[in-house]
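note to self — DONT lose this again. spent like an hour looking for the file last time. sequence + predicted structure for the chain T wanted, 292 res
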Amino acid sequence: MGRVLTVDTADVDRDAVLAWGRSTRRDLPWRRTRDPWAVLVSELMLQQTQVSRVVPRYEVFLRRFPTATACAAAGQAEVVRLWDGLGYNRRARHLHQAAATICDRHRGEVPERLEDLLALPGVGPYTARAVLVFAFERDVGAVDTNVARLLARWQGRTLSRHEVQAAADATVPPGQAWEWTQALFDLGATVCTKRSPSCGRCPVRPDCAWAGVGADPAKGSAGVGGSQSRFDGSDRQGRGRLIAALRRGPVASADLAATAGWTDDDARAARVMAALVHEGLVVPDGDVYRLG
């Protein structure tokens, strides 16, 4: 195989990447399955959440909800409770809705077509393609932040969203999409990192147009995540506190501000709770609120 692939200005040695991946691949529970439901669960859990936090929650969740049918049959509140520790609780709601859609439209089986996956609640272009690659081993490129950063650096320039996806699709070695994509994920997570990349340890440094010299082309490139807003004191922090309390039981209307950590701002707490109700995560019940 070797250097048989040209993607714009970058010649990528796919054999070197695959060999590196085989020797360094992290042992993660979702890499031991091709079950589409388990893959979908892992991908939604991993969105903006560290691997170390996902591993124990993933295994607990799948023991309770081993299939989309089991998840759809449960109440949304139970799904949200099991999401404890993963943050971004609307993803739990989306997963529950996706399970219901899978049951209603696909007889309980996660669909194999891109357009059907994209129609599931909470499933975007990356997640849909990740399911195709990791569950069905289709030869398509799955572009997360790590892969987008790799591709921009390899080519030595910022890329548009269309260029990133086209390059990702073109780099996949036929019949080896699963192995290739896992290698790229690990390479971006452990070597070609956002800050202080270890170019000396990179298996494709000879082919990289950037190789750590000059301005980083990944900055501003499509698919490369930017900096996140401050968490301390944010609405996100208050939302998290409210959901954490609701997992333990109902929260009285009079206690919203204290529960959210804003004892002097009743209006802010009420606004955040109203948003949770609007999203369907929480339901009002007289003078208290409960998980939806």
